[in-house]
Amino acid sequence: MSEDDTRRVGDHSLADDCGHSLDELADYLATGSSPYEGHYRQCPQCQSGLASLRSLGDLTRSLAEDDARTAAESDGWLQDILSNLRLETRAGRSIPIASDDPDDGLSETEGAVVALIRRTGDDIDGVTIGKCRLHGDITEPGARTRVELNVTALHGYRLPTLVDALRSAVAEALTTHTELDIQGVDITVTDLFGTDGAGEDQP
Fold first, then answer.
1. Can you tell which superkingdom this protein's organism belongs to (predicted)?
2. More confident residue, 80 or 185
C-alpha cells in the first residue's frame, strides 16, 4: 500500500477509550515515528489497526509487482477495506466472559474478536477479508452468533477450497479463543484479483 493509500483513510477514532485514528496509524507506519508510539505499542485497538494496515500493504505491494493494471484498478476495493477497518478496529460491544466469581464482570470487546478473525484470515494464502460483522446479541452470555465475511480472492486459487479453509479456520479460532456460540460463518467472495481477473465482481 502506498503512502497516499494509507493516508486516505479519514480521521475517525479507533475507539472511544483510545482516541487515535487509523490515519494516525498510517502516518506512523509511513514515517516510523510518532509522539504516541508508546501508546500504539500497548493499545490493543491500535495494535489491531497496525496489523491490518501492514497486511493490506503487503497485499497491494504484491499486486503491484504482479500486475500494474491490477494495482491501478484496486483503488476502489482498497478504500472499501479501509472503510471497514475504520469501523472494525473500534472496541464495539462488550462480550461477557464466564467466571467462577459473578462479581468479576469479565468481558472482551467486539473489536478484539474481529481482530482475531482478521489475523486468522491473514494466515490463509489467497484471500483478504474486507467486511467482518458479528450478528446476534453478543452482549448476552450464550447468545447465538453468526459471522458475516466479505472477502477478496486472488486469481489462481480454487474458490470453494479457499472459502472452506477460511470458514474452518475462523470457526476453530472463535471456538478456541472466545465463548461465542457460533452458528455459522457466512462468506461471500465479492472481488477476484490477479492477472486474469483483476477487479471483477463475483456473484
1. Bacteria
2. 185
